[in-house]
Design brief:
Number of helices: 7
Shape: globular
Order of helices and strands: EHEHEHHEHEEEEHEEEH
CATH class: Alpha Beta
Helix content: 25-40%
Mean pLDDT: 96
Radius of gyration: 17 Å
Distance between the termini: 15 Å
Strand content: 15-25%
Number of domains: 1
CATH architecture: 3-Layer(aba) Sandwich
Number of strands: 11
CATH topology: Rossmann fold
Largest sheet: 9 strands, mixed
Oligomer: single chain
Amino acid sequence: MPTALIITTAGINCDRELGEAFELAGARAEFRHLNELMADPALLDSYDLIGLPGGFSYGDAVAAGRVAAQLMRRTLYDALVRTIERGVPMIAPCNGFQIAVQIGLLPGPEPGDPWPRRPPKPTVTLADNASACFIDRWTRVEIPQHTRCIWTHGPALPDAVRLLPVAHGEGRFIPESDGLLGNLAEHGQVAVRYAADDNPNGSVGNVAGICDASGLVLGLMPHPERYTRWTQHPWWTRLGETEGGGDPPGLRMFRNAVARARQAATV
């Protein structure tokens, strides 16, 4: 059974949901505090999956995820890169996404390029929502056909179930240039988009989530770990048999990652 590391720290509040999602998908979840990992980064080498959960790490002081990201850039960047290089799937929802882009893990180097040995300057940001309000609701999403993300691949889902919950105040995806956004789309690194008429935060290009060039590292503002049971769907009692069959979209993401981890373990 693959083992998933859930990184926790002050202010994180979605760690249990993330751990349960991994366990429902067939992995064993272990929770470790960031302080423990910073003291011994080699601990990351023993895990098959990694989750960087959502919440309000360190109270989102200065900016969302800023304190946690700076601590991790300084102490864990090399260890995190090692896990990616050995094929470990990693997910970073919401606050985790905010942290991952500031560490320099996303969008990462271009396909074929090696990971830099030092944390790179962030090239995307997750700014205040265009509404200047905290948004907590379900939003319709789309999975691009051309994506290399191992978490989001799979057959198309019916419109009625192709939803994910969002809950954030700083989630507006902004790349440093239009050229960068074009490159991400061309390279298949846009993993999730908001429906064009249901963009909750004003993200450029309706981008809800991106992956690195390996497709292993997924960062997204929605919370797939909150959509692992059909009873979590906002109108689940009205779903038809064809709509509510199989795994919910959130659980399917975690099953994809656990299957990849199992495959890597047999190589």
